[in-house]
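Encode chain A's predicted structure.
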Amino acid sequence: MGNYEALQKAEEERRRKVAGAQATPVAALDWDRTPQTAPSRPADKPGFFKRIFSRRAEAERSSQASGELNKRRISILRPDSYVSEQFRTLRGRIEALSATRPIRTICLSSANPGEGKSTAAINLAVVSSMSVDHKVLIVDCDMRRPTVSQSLGITPEKGLAEVLLGQTTLDEAIAKVEGTNLDALLVRLQPENPSELLASREMVKLVNELNQRYDRVILDTPATLGLPDSKIVTELCDGIVVVVRASRTPREEVNLVLEILDRNKVLGMVLNDAEADRESYGYY
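Encoded structure for chain A:
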């Protein structure tokens, strides 16, 4: 019995030691400590993707606007381009017609806005100013939605309206187009009565004075349909060039423009955005 009791006691002692070892507390994890926060990524911030897409859209709009401006002044940026050559051809045809009748003032018009009228006016004026000993002026007669100044990169201090209102002289209003021999009479003030100003005696006097000063005057008029402005200005000019946009300007609207304007003054038409040569901005 003595040996048995000794063994039993030894076994109980071993069990207590094992149980004590298992109950020994392990260093507790510090669960209460605030975990280190990982640095926030840009994409986690509110509105991140919205800002990214907004910037991309703005960049695309800026690129498109820049491309449109370059189209409007391609004869300045790329004088040896296919498009510039087409405008030289137009210039040559007008000069050929000038041999049969005097053509100093030429109006460019279209049926509706956005058909390339201002682009044609600017580029025709630029290539015309390349002729030796030729003084050429472009006049922006669209006092409602002027575009020529932006296209040429000029911020005018005075413009057409100020001249017609007697607020400034013609010399003060005329600007030089950098990199060319071209002069420009642009729009700064946008009056409330553009039609009345264009139909005024002062406008008649102005065109007569420009005829004396320049060999060629190119007038960019508003679109013909819906406004009287184009009809008023074309009455003061020697010739009219109508700009038509391919696959966009309906035939009936072209016919209507020819009915509104003086057919005897129409020198011809420019077909814009034709499929002939997309690389060269689609003019034909």
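The mean pLDDT is 80.
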